[in-house]
Design goal:
The complex is a heterodimer of chains A (464) and B (102).
Chain A (H helix, E strand, L loop, with lengths): L5 E4 L3 H12 L4 E4 L13 H4 L3 H6 L1 H4 L1 H10 L3 E3 L3 E5 L5 E5 L2 E5 L3 E4 L3 E3 L12 E3 H9 L3 E3 L3 E6 L1 H12 L4 E6 L5 H4 L1 H28 L2 E3 L3 E6 L6 E5 L5 E5 L3 E5 L1 E3 L2 H5 L4 E4 L4 E4 L12 E3 L9 H18 L8 H15 L2 H7 L14 E3 L4 E2 H8 L5 H8 L12 H11 L21 H11 L3
Parallel strand pairs in A: 1-2, 1-7, 2-3, 7-21, 9-17, 11-12, 11-17, 12-13
Antiparallel strand pairs in A: 4-5, 5-6, 8-18, 14-15, 15-16, 19-20, 22-23
Helix pairs in contact in A: 1-5, 1-11, 6-7, 7-9, 11-12
Chain B lengths: L1 E3 L9 E6 L2 E6 L4 H5 L8 E2 L6 E2 L12 E4 L2 E5 L10 E3 L1 E2 L9
Parallel strand pairs in B: 2-8, 4-9
Antiparallel strand pairs in B: 2-3, 4-5, 6-7, 6-8
The structure holds flavin-adenine dinucleotide and FE2/S2 (inorganic) cluster.
Chain lengths: 464, 102
């Protein structure tokens, strides 16, 4: 069995940055990532795209990833691409499956750097072919370089939707219309936050404002304050229906609708280990409970990057480095001369997080983002609608009982698409705050694994 | 639904996969789901519960709506499966049947 000092799950900005610090200081580091190349979400496909027109169109923050990837490749950390972690035990024993089969790893510390996923935001018709997330479309843009064949409709809110629209147009795609679901109210209250944020990170915000202006100019239509979004069609999307801020119901024809309602931390890994989590109202998301180093409530398990709470790529880099420094000092391997490293990371982290409260506020998802109407599918896997859950909801059950009664959350996605909605429905019916509702427990395997892969472990464990 | 930005130079980085018996050209290194999104019939499965059609939704492995049959093996995420020349891909209709594959 492999026994590295440090196992890192995820080769995005956080995981790679941690690996560089730890490996340079002499730790044996293993980095496992499901993707075939390093970069995580933001820098997906960076090695192939750098130096191409597509790379340039994706923008400077994208291209900046190449330096981190190179440093990571040269760091001495052992990198296992195309390999997924499907179980971590509280003893830190970890099971992974990749091109070389299934392996057990027993590291001294684990850094969970699994990033974020887009916030699941159910609405009528969201399971139809032709409805996909903005992040999905952006993944197709980064590799292999595909864009919607016709001018596309985008609905929702969040920086990623603006960024994608901008990148798409730069690459010769077109936006037919943007349906902004953002609640108009919080903007006013955000003025104070804005002032502080502009002072500390004016450039970042100017970029965002520029994306916005660009979108206004280039999108065929820009509709503000959209509610009651609905994808229409039977076997595939044929159109979109929505209500405008002034109450008019409009319909447009389209065979593709991209939806985005912000991102939330990947929590499955941490929660499967029993790491404590809490509701973060400002980000409308559950986040792991961590100390200032990223240490979770389970000894030896640290979390960094967007999996620790949404902070963006620069914050992910700094949190990754801090976690690595902590692991080094816990193992008594912090090299001399690293005293200044922590302070530098903390300073850069504070700078990276300066605009966050403002961004969280202006992109706060609509209030009912997790509270769809009775006819909407909540659990995509088991095809359960809100009304199918009503019966179980009325008799005061927790999420886990509801799962047993209705099968919501029991399908292959294991609640990744419905856990928030189910928790929110329970909170709503029982008039409790979200923070009081415990979401589904997470059980291994975290990712699908074949029986024969599990069986092959027995062979490895057996004496030769 | 989607189109490639740059057409590949002839053959060089191209592979051909078998999608429900039809040959489909693909780029080396792309995922099955990404190929599918350029097809006229851009759906990947019919659900076990109501036979409703589904298509890839998240492309990053967290929705499990892109499950397909790959080389006889069921319930594989097409967005996490990379194409190989001659790979046999089938839309998954209804529940999976157990196929001994290893
Ligand atoms: C679809 C999507 C697109 C985004 N695009 C952008 C963008 O263009 N610009 C931007 O500024 N921000 C973007 N973000 C926000 C993103 O979260 C960044 O802030 C940044 O990528 C976070 O870095 P990270 O290191 O925390 O995680 P990530 O970059 O997300 O890296 C996490 C890595 O962990 C791997 N992983 C997860 N679970 C497992 C497992 N069980 N086994 C093995 N590997 C695993 C994943 O494959 C991934 O490569 C995007 C987010 C999403 C969800
Ligand atoms: S498209 Fe969501 S898991 Fe593949």
């Amino acid at each position: 069995m492999l026994k590295p000092d440090l196992l890192i799950v995820g080769a995005g900005p956080a995981g790679m940055s941690a690996a560089v610090v730890a490996a340079r200081a002499g730790l044996s580091v293993m980095v496992v990532d499901e993707q075939p190349t390093p970069g995580g979400q933001i820098w997906r496909g960076i090695e192939a795209n750098a130096g191409t027109a597509r790379g340039r169109a994706l923008g400077a923050p994208y291209l900046s990833g190449l330096a981190t990837v190179r440093a990571f490749r040269e760091s001495g950390a052992v990198y296992w691409p195309s390999t997924r972690v499907w179980q971590i035990e509280p003893t830190l024993r970890t099971y992974v499956t990749g091109p070389d089969g299934t392996l057990m790893i027993q590291p001294s510390a684990i850094l969970i750097a699994t990033g974020a996923q887009e916030r699941p935001a159910p609405f009528r018709g969201w399971t139809l072919p032709g409805v996909m997330t903005v992040g999905a479309a952006q993944i197709l843009l980064k590799a292999p370089g595909t864009v919607p064949a016709a001018p596309v409709w985008i609905a929702g809110c969040g920086p990623l939707a603006l960024l994608y629209a901008h990148q798409l147009v730069r690459l010769g795609g077109a936006v037919a219309g943007f349906l902004d679901t953002r609640m108009p109210a919080p903007l006013a209250g955000a003025a104070r936050l804005a002032a502080g944020a502009v002072l500390r990170s004016g450039r970042e915000l100017a970029k965002g404002a520029y994306w916005y202006a660009d979108l206004h100019r280039r999108a065929g239509r820009y509709v503000r304050g959209v509610v009651d979004l609905q994808a229409l069609g039977t076997d595939r999307v044929e159109g979109v229906r929505y209500r405008t801020a002034d109450g008019r119901v409009e319909e447009v024809e389209t065979s593709l609708l991209l939806i985005h309602e912000g991102v939330v931390p990947e929590l499955h890994t941490a929660r499967s280990l029993g790491c404590q989590t809490r509701w973060h109202a400002g980000q409308a998301a559950y986040v792991p409970v961590l100390n200032e180093w990223g240490e979770s409530s389970v000894p030896g398990i640290l979390v960094a990057g967007d999996a620790a709470g949404i902070g963006g790529a620069e914050a992910a880099i700094q949190r990754g480095r801090l976690a690595a420094l902590r692991i080094l000092s816990r193992l008594g391997r912090l090299p001399a001369g690293q005293e200044g490293a922590e302070a530098a990371c903390r300073k850069a982290l504070a700078r990276a997080l300066a605009p966050r409260a403002f961004l969280d506020r202006i992109f706060m998802p609509r209030e009912n983002v997790f509270l769809p109407d009775d006819d909407t599918i909540v659990c995509r896997c088991e095809e359960l609608r809100v009304r199918d859950l009503r019966g179980a909801l009325s008799c005061s059950v927790g999420a886990n009982q509801l799962k047993a009664f209705t099968r919501a959350g029991m399908g292959p996605c294991q609640g990744r698409q419905c856990a928030y909605t189910v928790a929110s429905l329970i909170a709503n019916v029982e008039a409790r705050p979200m923070g009081d509702v415990e979401p589904f427990r997470v059980r291994p395997p975290l990712k699908p694994v074949r029986l024969c892969d599990v069986a092959s472990l027995a062979e490895e464990a057996a004496p030769p | 639904m989607f189109r490639l930005l740059e057409q590949g130079r002839s053959g060089e980085d191209a592979v051909t996969i078998d999608l429900d018996g039809q040959p489909v050209r693909a780029r080396a290194g792309e995922t099955v789901a990404s190929v599918l999104m350029r097809e006229a019939e851009a759906w990947c499965r019919a659900t076990p519960v109501s036979q409703a059609r589904r298509a890839p939704y998240c492309m990053m492995g967290v929705c499990f709506d892109c499950l397909m049959l790959v080389e006889g093996e069921g319930l594989l995420r097409a967005c996490q499966t990379y194409v190989r020349d001659g790979m046999k891909i089938r839309r998954q209709i209804g529940a999976r049947h157990v196929v001994p594959s290893c």
